[in-house]
## 1
Amino acid sequence: MSKTPDDVPEAAGDPTGRLDRALVQLAPVKRALVRASGRAAARVRSCDGCPAKCCRAGLNSMKITRIEAEALRRRLVGPDLAPLVPEILRRAEAEVARRGLKDGPSATYDCPLLSPTGRCLVHGPAQPAGCLTFRPVPDGGCDHDLPLFHRKEPEIARAERAAWGRLAPVLSIPEALLRLFRR
Ligand code: SF4
Ligand code: SF4
C-alpha cells in the first residue's frame, strides 16, 4: 500500500486513489505552514505553557475544508490515536449539541482534538490551516496570520477539487469529524 507523504494510512473506500492524490497535493501546503509556525514561535514566542485558549469555547470557531477533515481522519486512525477516537467522537457529539454548532454559523466550541492536558492531539501537518496560522504576535497576544492563510487557500481548494471535483461547505471540527466517522 502506498502512503501519503505524511505517512498516514490510506483511506478505506478510495478505490480510484483520488483522495490519496489530493492529500499528496495538500501535504506540502501543510508542511510549509508548519515551518512558518515554527519560525514564528522562534521569532515571537512559543505556545509552550499556554492552556490553548485558542482551541476552546470563547475563542475557537475554527471551520475546516472537507479535504482537511480527511487529512485529520487519516491521522486519527493511526495506531497512536485510534484508541482515543471513541472519546474524541463523544466530545465532538457533546460540543455539537452544547454549542448548537449545526445552527450557529460562528459558534465557538471546545475542540475535541485538544487533550485533557491542553495539547493538540494532531499537532503537525494534519492540523487545519486555520490552526497552523493562528499564533502568538509581538504585542503579547495571539492572532490569525490572515495574509498567509489567504495565500494558501487556493492550494487547499485545488486539493479539494482534485478529490471531489467541487468545494464543500466548511464545517466546525466536531461536525466534520462526526460526518467522517459516522457517515
Ligand atoms: S496561539 Fe496563543 S492562545 Fe493559542 S496556544 Fe499559542 S499562545 Fe496559546
Ligand atoms: S485541531 Fe488542534 S490546534 Fe486546531 S483547534 Fe483543535 S486542538 Fe486546537
## 2
Amino acid sequence: MRSIDIDVLVIGAGPSGCVSASILHQSGLKVLVVEKEKFPRFVIGESLLPRSMETLERAGFVDALKQKGFQEKFGAKFVRNDEVCDFNFSDQFTKGWNWTWQVPRADFDLAISQELQKKGVEILFEHTVTGIEFKGSDSTTTITDKDGNTILVNAKFIVDSSGYGRVIPRLFNLDKPSNLPMRKTVFAHISDSNRLQYAEPNRIIVVVVKQDIWVWLIPFSNGNTSLGFVGDPEFFKGFEGANTEEQLWNMIQSVPYLKERFAGQQFAFTPRTIEGWSVTTEKFYGEGFVLTGNVTEFLDPIFSSGVTLAVVSGEKAANIVIKKLKGEAYDWEQDFMVPTQRGVNVFRSYVMGWYDGTLQDIFFAANTKLEFKNQICSVLAGYVWDETNPFVKKHDKLLKTLSDVIKVQAS
Ligand SMILES: Cc1cc2nc3c(=O)[nH]c(=O)nc-3n(C[C@H](O)[C@H](O)[C@H](O)COP(=O)(O)OP(=O)(O)OC[C@H]3O[C@@H](n4cnc5c(N)ncnc54)[C@H](O)[C@@H]3O)c2cc1C
C-alpha cells in the first residue's frame, strides 16, 4: 500500500482548505490537500463579503481571481414590497475592503485550487478521507481514490476543512446541534436578461416575502442569477409541483417583483433543495487537528457569512499550526476558538434579529440614523471582529435597543 509522509494534511479544497494550505505552504511546511470531488464541482455559497478579500490576498489568490472576470459586489439591497434599504460597502464604519465578488462557486473554487497547485501544493482530487488514527498529535489517515485504491497519509497535523462532509466530527462523534431552528431552501441559477431594468447586478438583493421567508438574488457576470427561497420548511408545503422546477417556478410567480423580472427566463439546472444546515461541534480543535470553515459552524445564508468565516478561520488555524510545528508558543483556545466563536456569535445575533423581525424594523425604518446604518454596514461587510464598532461589541443588545427606539420615535 502506498504511503505519504507530510507535515500537514488539509482535508477539502474549498475556500477554507485552500487558504489554510496556502498559508501553511508559504511558511515552508510540506502540505497535502485531499479533495473528494473532481473540480469544477457545484457548491452553494456564492455571495462573498469584503472582509474575505483581506484573507484571500494574504493567501495569494486575489491577483489570479481578478483575471476571472467575476461580478463585482459593492453592497447589499433589502426589498420589502415598496420599501428598499440599500447598503453600500463604501459607506461602512470600519476601514477595510469595500468590494468583493459574486461567484459561481464551481469556477471560484477551481480558480483558487489551480492557483494553490501553481504555488506548489499537491491536491489529490477524487480522493476521500475514510479513516483517521491519532497517536498523540501524529496521525495516519486512510484515503481512497475513485477506483478503490487506498493510500495512507502520515501527518504531524490535520486541518479539517471538509465543509458539509464534516470528516473529523463524524468520525469521532463531535457533532452538536445548533441553537437555530431548522430552515430550508429551494434554489437554482436562472437566466436574467432583464436584470438591468430592475436592479444593479453589483449587489446581492434580498427580497422579503414574509418576516421569516426571503429570497436571495445574486447576479453573476455570466448573465445568470442565483435565486433561492429560504425559510421555515412549512412555507414550502404551500407550493405544489411535480418536481422542484415546478415548485420553484410557482414560488417565483407568487412574488410580483420576481414574477415580472423572471418572466420567460430559464433555469440553468434543475432546482435543488437543502434542509437543516445549522450544526456545530463542542470544540474546534483537539490534539493533532483543527476544524475550519463550515466544519466549525454554519449559521444561515441570510448575511452571506459562510465563505468569509471559512477563509478567516482557515487562515487563523494555519498560523497556529505553523507556530506549533516550529516549536513556538501557541494557544488554541485564546488564538483560535475564542476569536472564531466571537465572529460567529456576532453573525448569530444578526441572523436571529433578522428572523425575529428586529433587523427588518431597523432596515426599513425611515428614521434610522446614518451613523448606525454605517456601523451595521460593516457587519454586513464581514468586519465582525472590529470591536471599535458598537454594533459588533454590543451585538447581542444594541439591535433590540435600536429597534425599540425606532418604534417609540415612530409612534
Ligand atoms: C442555502 C445556502 C446558501 C449559502 N449562501 C452563501 C453565500 O451567499 N455566501 C457565503 O459566503 N456562504 C454561503 N453559504 C455557506 C457556504 O456554502 C459555506 O460556508 C462555504 O462553502 C464553506 O466553505 P468551506 O471551505 O468550509 O467548505 P466547502 O466549500 O464545502 O468545501 C469543503 C470541501 O471538502 C470536500 N470534502 C468533504 N468530505 C470530504 C472527504 N471525506 N474527503 C475529502 N474531501 C472532502 C468537499 O468535496 C468540498 O469540496 C450558504 C450555505 C447554504 C446552505
